[in-house]
Amino acid sequence: MSDMNSMNREIKKDQLRRQIVPASPQKDEDSNEIIKRARTKVKKKKLKIFLVVLFILSAGAVSLYTYLNYYQYTGYSVVWEKSLNEGSYVGYLDFGTNVLKYSKDGASYIDNQGKEVWIQSYEMKSPVASVNGSYAVIADQQGNSIYVFDKTGNTGVANTVLPIIKASVSAHGVVAAILEDTTSNYVYFYKRDGSSLDVKIKALLGGDSGYPVDISLSPDGTQLIGSYAFLKNGTMNGRVAFHNFAEIGKSVPDRLVGGFDEPYESTFVAQVRFLDDTYSCAFADNGISFYSTKNALSPELIKQIPAEDEIKSVFYSDKYAGMITDNPEGENPYKLSVYKSNGNLMFTNGFQYQYTHADIDGNLVILYNEDSCRVYNMSGRLKFSGTFDFPITKIRNGRFPNTLIVSGPQNMKEIRLQIGGQYQ
């Protein structure tokens, strides 16, 4: 009996002990699990929000890309209009985001709201102008004065003894000018303040060196590409030559680092241009040649684009070059082709618009005549086709993607292309 009582007492003690000391570790485990599940839930919610936002942004980007590349405008409204003093107007040139207007009696720098930033007076019989980056040059063809400008105004004037044929400027204000003599032609160089540099290139008329036709300085001013014409066996031939005026160019005679005759046999090279410090191109009557000066002492012809039919126009920017040729096949009488600075094709299109000017501004190709224009993007899509009620001499990009600056001899307008249009 006593054994049974003792056993019962032990059982009751064990029960009492379990009630007094509960299993607390299980409670801690449950609490950690709850916190872990809550954090996981928050992370999943944030991920869902991020994916939704990413989807909305991606859809917006695709819509914007589609709109900018495929939408065709059909009308416009005038944002602002500015009357200009016509004077003896000659032309406009793109100058940074604004334009340089030049005439026989002066030049003015006009911003993208039609305001004249500066005005410079001079007297020239036949002004020719060139722009490169932040500098512009205006020279009196067959005269003796060269005016150099930056975006703040005139930086200097160079006066020459020999008549001027052409002038080119670098993005740092160095000027190269072809000067004409009775027995030879020269390329002289000037600083942006108009003072002479102790550098010149001589070409004997009728000699092997050829007659200089056109020149262009690289943006940094250390390289020059020139086109030359010379007689060989009674036939006119073309030549493209490169000169280097950096320290490395001192190691070669006359700083002549490259010359190309073979591509221009029985061909005239009318124009040359450095697009940037590496790539340049030459426009001949048989096509466009693209060059690279990555190796400063050994320029390379990287691509030659032959013209299958007669070239009507050539044009370029700092990133692209293009040409318009006859197109005898099909319903379109002309063919527009645009290339990157390395010669790779961007697009080619046939068209039948009667243009008088062709320009590249940014990522737009602009064809226009005295009262209408056509605008293409770099995918070859026609973005706008319209007519105007005043004379046109220059069209360029406006301040926003859907605006254009339309200039004439007496006025300038910014137009906003209307939203109403259609997809091609």
Structure commentary:
Keywords: Membrane, Transmembrane, Transmembrane helix. InterPro entries: DUF5711. The chain is an alpha+beta fold and 424 residues long. It has a domain of 133 residues: Thrombin, subunit H (Beta Barrel). It is built from 2 helices and 34 strands. The protein has a 4-stranded antiparallel β-sheet, with no helix packed on it. A 4-stranded antiparallel β-sheet has the order 3-4-5-6, with no helix packed on it. A hairpin with a 5-residue loop joins strand 31 and strand 32. The longest helix has 47 residues. The mean pLDDT is 87.
Keywords, separated by commas or semicolons:
alpha+beta; membrane; Thrombin, subunit H; single chain; 16% helix; 424 residues; four-stranded antiparallel sheet
Number of helices: 2
Shape: elongated
CATH architecture of the domain at 71-86 and 308-424: Beta Barrel
Determine the CATH topology of the domain at 71-86 and 308-424.
Thrombin, subunit H
Approximately how much beta-strand content do the residues carry? over 45%
CATH class of the domain at 71-86 and 308-424: Mainly Beta
Structural class comes to alpha+beta
> Which regions are unreliable across 5 or more consecutive residues at pLDDT < 50?
none
Tell me the span between the first and last alpha carbons: 107 Å
Report on the biggest sheet.
Answer: 4 strands, antiparallel
Average pLDDT? 87
The number of distinct β-strands equals: 34
What is the percent of helical residues? 10-25%
* Main sheet: strand order: 2-33-32-31
Radius of gyration: 35 Å
Region (Disordered): 1-32
Transmembrane segments: 49-68
Pfam family, one: DUF5711
Keywords: Membrane, Transmembrane, Transmembrane helix
